[in-house]
Amino acid sequence: MQITFLGTSSGIPTRSRNVSSVALRLPQRAQLWLFDCGEGTQHQILRSDLKVSQLSRIFITHMHGDHIFGLMGLLASCGLAGSVERVDIYGPPGLNDYLQLASRHSHTHFSFPIKVHAVRPGVVYEDEEFTVTCNPLHHRITTFGYRVVEKDRSGRFDVEKAKELQIPPGRIYGQLKRGETVTLADGRVIDGKELCGPTEIGRKIAYCTDTIYCENAVELARDADVLIHEATFAHQDSELAFQRLHSTTTMAAQTALGAKAHRLIMTHFSPRYAPGNSIELKDLLEEARAIFAKTDMAYDFMTYEVPRRREKILNAENIIHNS
């Protein structure tokens, strides 16, 4: 799972930062998922190592322009290129109407199926590998944050150990690989879990923007391997944050701390913190790290490989249990 930041500015683009979009690349299934799609996102994809042909899902947080104005252009280009098979889009009510109107008035016809899903709190997508849930955040309009959870996978099955124990291959191996307990013909009871390596713990990613500090964001980020959270304002400008219902650096850090997240990556920065101003972006990073040390500051085209956690190996005394 690799995260690529395609836009890290808030409201308007700058010379070095485009507006909001984050890509999640899933190489094991050759898929690309997008979270928000601000104006110019398709250009950012072209400048990156991402393959638009792998685009399969887009998750929209809310209907503000800096999060959706690139959506129609991206979909239209995908249709002209003929490289995308199907795109599922998830977002708040009104998203489907917006796309339908834009398509009708621009006379754009897609050559591939597009399905728009109006999300509600809870599970919005699930398959054999991933579950995606959403929760409402606290912003000026209806806004959702998303949580992506990779399901746990059994560790590698130790075939050599199974042979040493003279376990006959075949259907039994399949059962043991799934961690099941099997009784052999000679009466021995084999615990499959103890023939497998450490469980591969599924990775967790939370994406929370735009919002002021709220408990729903903490819940989305609970035990996340990485929390991507907006930090539009410095702590000194907290009054602006409360007026506009955006987060400060300290709010983002407090969310990560309260959720016991493993890493915080801040994004969605106000252009007011440009180099040479009284407060610069490096100051925002220092503010957040004072509360949550494992904080990074995103920049356009930054990539982050989400590390995998492994379950601790138990000191099992017996693989074989005599019946």
UniProtKB/TrEMBL annotation:
Provide the residue positions that the database annotates as binding Zn(2+) 1: 62, 64, 139, 210
User: Could you say which EC number(s) this protein's record lists?
Assistant: 3.1.26.11
Superkingdom of origin: Bacteria
Active-site residues (renumbered):
66
What cofactor does this one take? Zn(2+)
Q: Provide the top EC class.
A: hydrolase
Chain sites annotated for binding Zn(2+) 2: 66-67, 210, 268
What reaction does this enzyme carry out catalytically? Answer: Endonucleolytic cleavage of RNA, removing extra 3' nucleotides from tRNA precursor, generating 3' termini of tRNAs. A 3'-hydroxy group is left at the tRNA terminus and a 5'-phosphoryl group is left at the trailer molecule
Q: Which UniProt keywords apply?
A: Endonuclease, Hydrolase, Metal-binding, Nuclease, tRNA processing, Zinc
Per its UniProt record, what InterPro entries does this chain match?
Answer: Metallo-B-lactamas, RibonucZ/Hydroxyglut_hydro, RNase_Z/BN
Q: Explain how, and how many, cofactor molecules are bound.
A: Binds 2 Zn(2+) ions.
Which residue range or ranges hold the Metallo-beta-lactamase domain? Answer: 202-269
Q: Which Pfam families match?
A: Anti-Pycsar_Apyc1, Lactamase_B_2
Gene Ontology MF annotations: 3'-tRNA processing endoribonuclease activity; identical protein binding; zinc ion binding
* Binding partners and assembly: Homodimer.
Q: Which family does it belong to?
A: Belongs to the RNase Z family.
- What functional role does this protein have? Zinc phosphodiesterase, which displays some tRNA 3'-processing endonuclease activity. Probably involved in tRNA maturation, by removing a 3'-trailer from precursor tRNA.
Q: What is this protein called?
A: Ribonuclease Z
Origin species: Scytonema hofmannii PCC 7110
Gene (UniProt): rnz
